[in-house]
Design goal:
heterodimer, A: alpha/beta, Transcription Regulator spoIIAA, 5-stranded mixed beta sheet, 3 helices, globular, B: alpha+beta, Heat Shock Protein 90, 5-stranded antiparallel beta sheet, about 30% helix, about 25% strand
Chain lengths: ~110, ~150
């Protein structure tokens, strides 16, 4: 995985993930997401280019989602790849995370 | 501990997060070579990845000096995976999946393994230094094992 790419527009951060999200990089993902939330930014996690995610990557998303709720900030996943979505379904988190289909976070 | 079927593929490598990608590639290649469909191979890859993560994080407790040995075999359409480590004996009574409606980070790996594989069992290696995990997945179209016919 390359370093998550973060784009900030006003108070909304889009964090784009790509490649394999596993134990070797899930802490980097976690830090990137939590940092944006702690800065008071709503977060969209773009997952179109995620080729694999394991439970450590999912745990990073869960932790960020929980912090967002605690802080009253919006948090959503966008353009989730089929590889990532199948793992979220396995954990039944596709029913928990707000998931948008469009790159604009809608849908 | 050994596979009940002849081992087709075996690897021994350091138990560190950086090796997980290589392990996944090995497992995918081996299981596809043994006749798994893409989705069946993906299930086994994820289950093995989660099992290796448990070894790295819990058995070796983050110490990068430990090793993992992985064996994969096939018996009449049933893929058998044996994962061995050389860590101090794990207290297996502490291994349990979290309830899925209990939303918190962590605790999903065991759920993944139990959901994706048809059988899993674990134990301590002879001599008391190490642990093993044996997982089975029956491939679609494989004959039902004797005594399991319905």
């Amino acid at each position: 995985m390359t370093t998550p790419q973060t784009t900030l527009v006003e108070d909304h951060a889009t964090v784009a993930l790509e490649g394999d999200i596993d134990l070797s990089c899930s802490q980097t993902v976690r830090s990137a997401l939590l940092a944006q939330l702690r800065a008071g930014h709503a977060v969209s996690v773009r997952m179109a280019a995620v080729s694999y995610i394991d439970s450590s990557g999912v745990a990073s998303l869960v932790e960020a989602y929980q912090l967002a709720r605690k802080l009253g900030l919006d948090f959503q996943l966008t353009e989730v790849s089929e590889a990532a979505l199948s793992v979220l379904r396995l954990a039944r988190l596709d029913r928990v995370f707000p998931i948008a289909t469009g790159s604009d976070g809608k849908g | 501990m050994s596979l009940s079927t002849p081992t087709v593929s075996s690897w021994r490598m350091k138990a560190c997060p950086e090796n997980l990608r290589t392990i996944r590639a090995h497992v995918r290649s081996a299981t596809l070579g043994l006749g798994c469909a893409e989705d069946e191979a993906a299930d086994i890859v994820l289950a093995v990845n989660e099992a290796c993560m448990n070894v790295i994080q819990h058995a070796y407790a983050g110490c990068d000096d430990g090793e993992i040995v992985l064996h994969i075999g096939n018996n009449a359409g049933c893929i058998e995976v044996l994962l061995e480590d050389f860590a101090p004996p794990v207290d297996f009574s502490r291994i349990c999946p979290r309830a899925l409606d209990d939303l918190r980070p962590g605790g999903l790996g065991t759920h993944f393994i139990r959901t994706l594989m048809d059988e899993s069992c674990y134990g301590h290696s002879a001599g008391g230094n190490g642990n093993w995990l044996r997982m089975l997945k029956r491939l679609r179209g494989a004959a039902q094992p004797v005594g399991d016919a319905r």
